[in-house]
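Interim report, section 4.2 (structural modelling).
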Amino acid sequence: MESQENEKSLAVQKLREREPQTIAEVIESRGETTVVLARRDLMRICEFLAQDPTLSFTFLSDISAVDRFPMEPRFEVNYQLLSMQRRERVRIKVRLSGSDAVLPSVIGIWPTADWHEREIFDLFGIRFEGHPDLRRILMPDDWEGYPLRKDYPVEGYR
Amino acid sequence: MPTLETQSGPAEPMVLNMGPQHPSTHGVLRVVLELDGEIVLSAKPVIGYLHTGIEKSCESKTYSQAITLTDRIDYLAPLSNNLCYCLAAEKLIGLEVPKRAQYIRVLLTELTRISSHLVWLGTHAIDLGAMSVFLYSFREREEIMKIYECVSGQRMMTSYFRIGGLAIEPPPDWLDRVRRVIDAMPGHIDEYEDLLTKNRIWMARTQGVGILSAADAIALGASGPMLRGSGVAYDTRKAFPYSSYDEFEFNIPTQTAGDCFARYQVRVAEMRESLKIIRQAMEKIPPSGPFRAEAPGIIPPSREEMKTSIEGLIYHFKIFTEGFAPPPGEVYQAIESPRGELGVFMVSDGSPKPSRVHFRAPSFVNLQTLPKMCVGKLIADVVACIGTTDIVLGEVDR
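Predicted structure of the assembly:
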């Protein structure tokens, strides 16, 4: 899937120039670009993507998680970034193992991440370090379990 | 007996649950306000009361079955949800939709925008004490509901867009009905503006209230009229055209004030732009032609074909018993819903049921701007601020 020459996405070009060792994988599929990162690089790369004036990924559209249970690493967290000026989208993906489902919070870079991260915590049980108010958001506070995990039955626990 | 002096002294902030004012807050949206007299010290939206686990339910349905769930997310704009979901599935499969179906989709989603804005306008005005606009705007909305009913058989839960095209051929006279509605609409919009735009009470209640700067709007992820009212001319229909929107001419209305009045102006102007798009779509829609793609095994065969050919029968049976399996992968599809950027993130693991469907709901994200808009302002302005975000709790909680 990886294509070295003729990179369509400016974000990928710039990342390759700047920190080639951080890109675990680039997936080009159905006209969309996904950059897979390791957790330790997430904050640094996100800051760069948001603050670099030529890239200007100032708008975080969405954060969503995927559970690949029973595969390991089981979780994927996807950040959909948007540059309004350049009309470019890029997806940042981080894979997490089930035993260590913790990510740094990106609220400092994009304040909109607040509720997205609370939602993922609520429904998947992935923790976000540095989030000022990591509580359940959609489910009741005393709810047990994380409903969007694949090992959580659709009709709930009985 | 306590004297007046002992009764006064530093007041403790009062915590209050914002009562039923907006149609949404009749039990489903709770805003916890901390008040110093009439001044709002903090505002915390508490959501989840309408959470129905739609994203989880999608995982146990086939791709086609889950369309009916999308109607129920933003129930004021069911066709926008249908469209976004279908576009995501089509992107996942790599399906090309016939132009005729694309134009019909554009026409109907623009009608949806108007009807959704009409509900917003009526309820927002009623919240702020202008009763009459509600009666007028619901009168016009009813006409649009009749068009939904005429094409899909349903007033609200339309499920009219299907993967690859439309559910059924629209009835022969439907464009005449659309024409009657949109010919009358500009006059109706003038009527609303007569009642509100220069109305001193309306201006006092909305101008300078709920100010959101462009920088704050972007940082908090606001989209749609919330963003354009703050002067950012961003519209998904222009930036990432889908369903042939690049063939249509329209403007992106923006206002720079960033207050409730600016967002009111943006939404009213958007209704007029939608009328322009609908007129162009009516010109473009060919009177006949395929209304869904040719893709055996994915698109159900016609009734005729199912009854006369063995392949048709096999495909019909397979599609309705086990569905179809898109190749593994993932897509993020965004559209401009009446409320802003509606996104569907869909993951296929190669089975006939989606492995994950996530809805990026514009109301959910826009509601985050509420504290920014009303902290430090009067409690009466909170009502205006909730109204101006145009939230649909079905979409916030999903």
